């Protein structure tokens, strides 16, 4: 019997217009009424979850692609970047003139001022937020998220030089940089252990390349109809797209709403 459902945000809960469709909202609220735990599982920072979490009435999340997990205000997992390794990475990106964005638990900043690629990528998330310029931020703060701005053909040297990181493209101009030991699945594992729930009692919905491990780890991994093609082999079920009521369709098929 399923007890908990993890939802990716962008492209899963949110449709192409970056809103939660009304039928999806109803389905998630019904799921909660039926006694299942609902958790957000995202690459976003906690301070970029507020609108979605308030709309759904959800106070549990996996953020920063698994580096941070929180349940009803209690921190379950917090794993920041290694500063020495991060310093080497920043130095290399600087030589290549590739902008970087950093997040701690409270804010997101950039090491380049008002860079058009950074602005464009954040506009695509509909956050009404532009990272402020703070080049030394990473020195002083615990960093949980790094974004690298480069074209697809420029990313290969990073993968060769920094095997300690995974690189997941979420925008034509931007990649998430993730410690190779972390994924959404590691955050989910910590959450499940805290709640005393088995992986086979969990469901996860996702659409992106950073959802592979998550869909593989839980008992029922569900890929959205609009998913990246490379995610599909990791799914137990493929539902409709986020714009075509994919979440309510799958939850109904599973008899959960």
UniProtKB/TrEMBL annotation:
Keywords in alphabetical order: Hydrolase
Under InterPro entries, the record lists:
Cof, HAD-like_sf, HAD-SF_hydro_IIB, HAD_sf
Superkingdom of this entry's organism?
A: Bacteria
**Which Pfam family, any one of them, does this sequence belong to?**
Hydrolase_3
Q: Mind listing the GO molecular function terms for this protein?
A: magnesium ion binding; phosphatase activity
Q: Which CDD domains match?
A: HAD_HPP (cd07517)
| Cellular component terms per the entry's GO annotation | cytosol
Q: What is this protein called?
A: HAD-superfamily hydrolase, subfamily IIB
Organism of origin is Caldibacillus debilis GB1
Its taxonomic placement starts with: Bacteria, Bacillati, Bacillota, Bacilli, Bacillales
């Amino acid at each position: 019997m399923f007890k908990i459902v993890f939802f990716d945000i962008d492209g899963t809960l949110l449709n192409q217009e970056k809103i939660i469709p009304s039928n999806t909202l109803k389905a998630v609220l019904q799921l909660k009424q039926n006694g299942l735990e609902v958790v957000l599982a995202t690459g976003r920072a906690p301070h970029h979850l507020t609108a979605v979490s308030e709309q759904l009435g959800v106070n549990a999340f996996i953020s920063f692609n698994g580096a941070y997990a929180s349940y009803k205000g209690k921190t379950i997992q917090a794993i920041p970047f290694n500063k020495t390794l991060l310093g080497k990475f920043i130095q290399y990106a600087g030589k290549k003139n590739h902008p970087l964005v950093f997040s701690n638990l409270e804010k997101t900043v950039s090491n380049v001022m008002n860079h058009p690629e950074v602005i464009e990528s954040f506009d695509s998330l509909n956050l009404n937020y532009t990272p402020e310029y703070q080049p030394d931020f990473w020195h002083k703060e615990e960093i949980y998220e790094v974004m690298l701005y480069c074209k697809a053909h420029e990313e290969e040297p990073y993968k060769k030089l920094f095997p300690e990181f995974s690189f997941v493209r979420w925008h034509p101009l931007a990649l998430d940089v993730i410690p190779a030991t972390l994924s959404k699945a590691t955050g989910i594992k910590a959450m499940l252990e805290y709640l005393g729930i088995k992986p086979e009692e969990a469901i996860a919905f996702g659409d992106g390349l950073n959802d592979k491990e998550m869909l593989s780890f839980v008992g029922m991994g569900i890929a959205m109809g609009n998913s990246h093609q490379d995610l599909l082999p990791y799914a137990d079920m493929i539902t409709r797209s986020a714009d075509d009521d994919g979440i309510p369709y799958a939850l109904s098929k599973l008899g959960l709403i």
